[in-house]
């Protein structure tokens, strides 16, 4: 979904206890990821939720950190991954983006854990900044809506 046609969403109603979400972020581009985190926190707080935040070195570490978090005794209701990869002059971008997306998808499909995936994969920093602003098109906020929607389904189906 592109940023321009993304729907404006209201806070997701979550039955049961207030949601506790673990945010795993790769703040390599600190201003961009910080903006995404701000958007995500707004959405989570509007739903009555809270967020614990941990940092990893880069986007490549997101799937492994998610796997570790799933094994940890944190008792989180859902997980939100935030990061940004900007295309450079080499193939590194393609390898990192593919590895991270495949790793996250494998964990998601295997576990069914409520997950929001907010990894920006952009051609330049201007595109990343545009997707991390506090203007209604924040990809961190969109990822927070996704994790809350998945959590609502999990609770609805008593999983």
Automatic annotation (TrEMBL):
> What's the Enzyme Commission number for this chain?
2.5.1.78
> Which terms does the record give in the GO molecular function aspect?
6,7-dimethyl-8-ribityllumazine synthase activity
Name the active site residues: 92 (proton donor)
Q: Enumerate the UniProt keywords alphabetically.
A: Riboflavin biosynthesis, Transferase
Which InterPro entries does this one have? LS (IPR034964), LS/RS (IPR002180), LS/RS_sf (IPR036467)
What domain of life does the UniProt record list for this protein's source? Bacteria
Entry function: Catalyzes the formation of 6,7-dimethyl-8-ribityllumazine by condensation of 5-amino-6-(D-ribitylamino)uracil with 3,4-dihydroxy-2-butanone 4-phosphate. This is the penultimate step in the biosynthesis of riboflavin.
Know the name of this protein? 6,7-dimethyl-8-ribityllumazine synthase
Species source reads Falsiroseomonas selenitidurans
